[in-house]
Specification:
Layout (H helix, E strand, L loop, with lengths): L4 H34 L5 E4 L4 E7 L3 E7 L2 E6 L3 E4 H14 L42
Length: 139
């Protein structure tokens, strides 16, 4: 059987698609296992229906989440989608890594080089636009 270049190309694309399907499946499985190990009493979580709370106990498939003092919900393990403890640490790290915005000092003013998207450019250095309705006085 002779394979033409089009058939070889289609087989190569098929092989790449199969490779990525298995790779994504393995990544999802790894993420799910990692999430299941983080489901421990005392962890602050958010469920997929938007309820925030603290895990009180974990059974085989059920998790008891305290949403406020005295209010306990029993939910399935798979409804837990976020762990708030790790989000807070990443938010703090992002806030620290951001550079402070340019501040204007009265003695030594500093201005950003160019306005960012949505900002109004400082137009104090430009001449005002001439009004086209002005009459010419040279006549």
């Amino acid at each position: 059987m002779i394979l033409d270049p089009l058939s070889i190309g289609m087989l190569a694309i098929l092989a790449v698609l199969i490779f990525f399907m298995f790779r994504n499946g393995q990544k999802r499985k790894k993420d799910l296992e990692e999430k299941q190990t983080k489901i421990v009493p005392g962890a602050e979580v958010m469920t997929n229906f938007g309820v925030f709370g603290t895990i009180l106990s974990v059974n085989d498939e059920k998790v008891q989440v305290e949403t406020s003092p005295g209010n306990v919900l029993t939910v399935h393990k798979q409804t837990i989608v976020r762990f708030l403890d790790e989000e807070r640490t990443t938010e703090v790290a992002d806030d620290v890594s951001d550079s402070a915005p340019d501040q204007v000092n009265e003695d030594h003013p500093t201005y950003p080089a160019a306005p960012e998207f949505g900002e109004v450019a400082d137009t104090t250095d430009t001449k005002p636009a001439s009004d086209s309705r002005e009459k010419n006085t040279d006549q």
